[in-house]
Amino acid sequence: MADINALLYKKRFGRELTDGEIRDFVRGVTDGSFADYQISAMLMAIAINGMSDRETVTLTMEMARSGDMLDLSGITGIKADKHSTGGVGDTTSLVLAPLVACCGVKIAKMSGRGLGFTGGTLDKLEAIPGLSVSMSDEEFARTVENSGIAIIGQTATLAPCDKVLYSLRDVTATVDVEPLIVSSILSKKLAAGADVIVLDVKTGSGAMMKTPEAALRLAKAMVTIGNRTGRRFAALITDMNQPLGRYVGNALEVEEALDILAGRTQGELKTVALELGARILLMAGTVNSTAEGVELLESKITSGEGLKKFAELIKNQGGNPDVAYDTSLLPKAETLIEVPAPGSGWLKSVSTDLVGYAAKALGAGREKKEDIIDPAVGLIVNKRIGDRVNAGDSLVTLHTGKISDVETAKRQILEAFVLSDEPAQKPQLIYGEVE
């Protein structure tokens, strides 16, 4: 067994760890050889002294190899995935995945569940009656090969080292340490086997990175490290100073995604989804520019192919494909409650995290993985930053159920929405990209 004290001493004084030392550290974390306090000390040493690109690449690859690595080489064509650093009303995966699959690029996506105020793709999909996000590796590969798309849950054996490190980062104030963020995100994506991966790095009041500058630094680091592993990465830096979509909640977000795919809805959610999808097509060699990619994806909405592909995904994963054409089949809330504006003015800002917490108070999110959620509850945002608001106008429509804490949700919404006497500027939607 590696001498953890020697590794700690070396990193404590800012010296680089060798590839073998990093391999030993990951092995000790994964098999339980190292105590939590020793691992925590290493996390803090990394937080203080950082890691070189070489160290971060090695840490990422060793974390990816700490468990099973999905082999998608038997699937013909380019396999693609997408990752978001988390937000509210962020339903881009459910929009871009079927559209990209219609263009001949395979979507082999492993997703997670929502924690805190961020929604998880799996929770949204499971709001569709009958749909399962569990498949064997063989069934997953076969479905992607035949249909071009499958979205399933991450297995317990995928990058198990990350699970240990992540739980300790949460209690040692090292969540926002760049090499640890990069290795955590990329190790799971690399283990999931995709060839090209687009990253949506959020910035703003509902994001981990509060400023565009911080988000850009993280995006550059992830793309640089990701490309050094032999896969192809690109990233967009996008706004999370208000919910991306108007719908927040599991069945509600599925409904909004279907409305976009059916051509009934425009807006920021659609824009970001198409821009992310266009970069997948560009990296896959399907198009020669992102503008061409957006146009191609838009054509799949107009033709109805995107909606049909979503119905196919639902059917392949055991759900009712009629949902794609009739959103009334989705779970519906018992009661709708409006939250009126207390005064008049222009909507100046939104604390997006509070909107997410309001949805969680209604039962749409969870604090711990074992918490029960209600797929029907959530909220619809009726005002966007820059809109004129009159006293009594509905800021948000709450969709509530038996477990909903309505008063807490109302209080959080009223705290989140800030009005101004002066006209307010709409926030920038896309701050930059990294290729």
Number of strand elements = 13
Number of helices: 16
Inertia-based shape: globular
Helical proportion? Answer: 40-55%
Q: What average pLDDT do the residues reach?
A: 94
Q: DSSP strand (E) fraction?
A: 15-25%
Written as H for each helix and E for each strand, in order along the chain, the element string is HHHHEHEHHEHHEHEEHHHHEEHEEEHEE
Poorly predicted segments: none
Secondary-structure content class: alpha/beta
- Round the Cα radius of gyration to an integer and report it: 22 Å
In the CATH scheme, the class of the largest domain would be Alpha Beta
CATH superfamily name of the largest domain? Nucleoside phosphorylase/phosphoribosyltransferase catalytic domain
How far apart, in Å, are the first and last alpha carbons? 40 Å
Largest sheet: 6 strands, mixed
CATH architecture term of the largest domain: 3-Layer(aba) Sandwich
**What's the arrangement of strands in the largest beta sheet?**
3-2-1-4-5-13
CATH topology category name of the largest domain: Pyrimidine Nucleoside Phosphorylase, Chain A, domain 2
Number of domains: 3
Quick gist of this model?
This protein is of the alpha/beta class.
For the structure shown, list the relevant keywords.
about 15% strand; globular; 4-stranded antiparallel β-sheet; Aldehyde Oxidoreductase, domain 3; 16 helices; single chain; Pyrimidine Nucleoside Phosphorylase, Chain A, domain 2; Transferase, Pyrimidine Nucleoside Phosphorylase, Chain A, domain 3; about 425 residues; 3 domains; alpha/beta; 6-stranded mixed β-sheet
